[in-house]
Design goal:
Shape: globular
Strand content: 15-25%
Order of helices and strands: EEHHEEEEHEH
Distance between the termini: 30 Å
Largest sheet: 4 strands, mixed
Strand order of the largest sheet: 3-4-5-7
Structural class: alpha/beta
Number of strands: 7
Radius of gyration: 17 Å
Number of helices: 4
């Protein structure tokens, strides 16, 4: 995944107020496919870090509950609370989400569909009377991030 620190101007195209967020790939299509296949949907570094904090607080939770809408990363069914940990790339963060230069139509549709699904899941939880928390990857990476539950 690209980030501003790991890229150079020669690999990225300026896009207005978000500087250098569309980057050209420097690896082959085959290698990129291999890298993307390795991206986890469960047990990510983000998820492990949040679960560690919850464990330290002695909180009991369920992880990746497939019976709930959107399969939340963390759920507290007794409290009617779910937590989603959204990566900047897959969920289209407007500050940190990069857009691959190749196969643009596919990726734009994929990310738009993810955002649309996120909104639908949020509405479903509201209808069910549950509280939903969503955290961006960049929020979790901050040293002063606090998880108050």
């Amino acid at each position: 995944m690209w980030n501003k620190e790991a890229t150079t101007k020669s690999h990225c195209l300026p896009t207005g107020r978000l500087k250098y967020n569309i980057c050209m790939d420097t690896v082959s299509k085959r290698k990129r496919s291999e890298i993307m296949r390795a991206v986890k949907s469960k047990g990510s570094k983000m998820e492990l870090a949040v679960r560690k904090r919850l464990d330290e607080k002695g909180l009991r939770y369920k992880k990746n509950v497939s019976g709930l809408p959107g399969t939340p990363d963390i759920a507290f069914p007794d409290k009617k609370l779910v937590i989603f940990l959204d990566s900047c790339f897959w969920h289209g963060c407007r500050w940190h989400g990069s857009r691959p230069a190749s196969n643009k139509k596919f990726w734009l549709k994929k990310i738009q569909d993810n955002k649309k699904r996120d909104r639908a899941v949020n509405l479903e939880y509201k209808r069910m009377g549950w509280k939903i928390l969503r955290f961006w990857e960049h929020e979790l990476n901050k040293k002063d991030f606090k998880l108050d539950i």
